[in-house]
From TrEMBL:
Name of the molecule in the record: N-acetyltransferase
Superkingdom per UniProt: Bacteria
Gene3D superfamilies: Hexapeptide repeat proteins
Transmembrane regions listed in the UniProt entry: none
Positions in coiled-coil regions: none
Pfam families linked: Hexapep (PF00132), Hexapep_2 (PF14602)
C-alpha cells in the first residue's frame, strides 16, 4: 500500500501518514501531524500542527481539525465540521497588540474511537466525544459527550443513544435501561447516565 497525495494539497514534510492514506485536493496537513493507516482527508480539510489521528479516519470536505486534537480509530468528521482549540479567542490582547502562538494555550478536542460528527457541527475547545457517539449536523458541543450518546442542538444535548452501527437504539420492552440496536441486535445497558455494551444479543 502507499500514500496518495493530490498535487494541490499541502502536506508538511514532517507530517507522518500511514499506509493507504489519501489527501485530497486543497487539503492542508501541518507540521508534525500524525495520521494512521487508511485515512481520508477530504478536499479543503485542515489538520493542525501536531494533531494525532488514528487508523481509518475520514475527514470530509472542509473539515477543520485544530491542534492539539486527538482522533481515535474509525472517527468520522463531517463536511465543514470544526474542532476549535481556544477557550477565549481574541485576535489582539487587551492592549491591542496582535496575539501570537505563544500568547495563549491551545486546548484540543478529543474524539474517541468510532465517534461521528455531523456536517457543520462545532466542538468547543477541550471537550471529549465518547466512543461511538454521534453528534448531529449543526450541533454545537460545549460539554463532554458520553460513549454511545446521540446529541443535537445548540448547545448540544443528549436526545438518545446509538450503537456501533450509528442507528438509534430502542429500549427493550419490559427491560428498563436495556437498549437494543435494531440493525445488529446488540444490547446495551444504561446506568447512571452512561451506556455500556453487554456481551450478549437479544434472542
Amino acid at each position: 500500500m502507499s500514500v496518495r497525495i493530490q498535487p494541490s494539497s499541502q502536506v508538511d514534510e514532517s507530517a507522518q501518514l500511514g499506509d493507504g492514506t489519501t489527501i485530497w485536493d486543497l487539503a492542508q496537513v501541518r507540521e508534525d501531524a500524525r495520521l494512521g493507516r487508511d485515512c481520508i482527508v477530504g478536499r479543503g480539510a485542515y489538520v493542525g500542527p501536531g494533531v494525532r489521528i488514528g487508523d481509518s479516519v475520514k475527514l470530509q470536505n472542509y473539515a477543520l481539525v485544530y491542534e492539539p486534537a486527538v482522533l481515535g480509530d474509525g472517527v468520522f468528521i463531517g463536511p465543514a465540521a470544526v474542532l476549535t482549540n481556544d477557550f477565549y479567542p481574541r485576535a489582539v490582547d487587551p492592549d491591542g497588540k496582535q496575539k501570537r502562538g505563544g500568547d495563549w494555550e491551545a486546548a484540543g478536542v478529543v474524539v474517541a474511537e468510532g465517534a461521528s460528527l455531523g456536517a457543520r457541527s462545532v466542538c468547543v475547545a477541550g471537550v471529549r466525544i465518547g466512543r461511538w457517539a454521534l453528534v448531529a449536523a449543526g450541533a454545537v458541543v460545549s460539554r463532554d459527550v458520553p460513549d454511545f450518546a446521540l446529541v443535537a442542538g445548540v448547545p448540544a444535548r443528549r436526545i438518545g443513544w446509538v450503537g456501533r452501527a450509528g442507528v438509534r437504539l430502542v429500549e427493550v420492552e419490559g427491560r428498563p435501561g436495556v437498549w437494543e440496536c435494531p440493525r445488529t441486535g446488540a444490547l446495551h445497558e444504561e446506568k447512571d447516565g452512561t451506556l455500556a455494551e453487554t456481551p450478549d444479543k437479544r434472542n
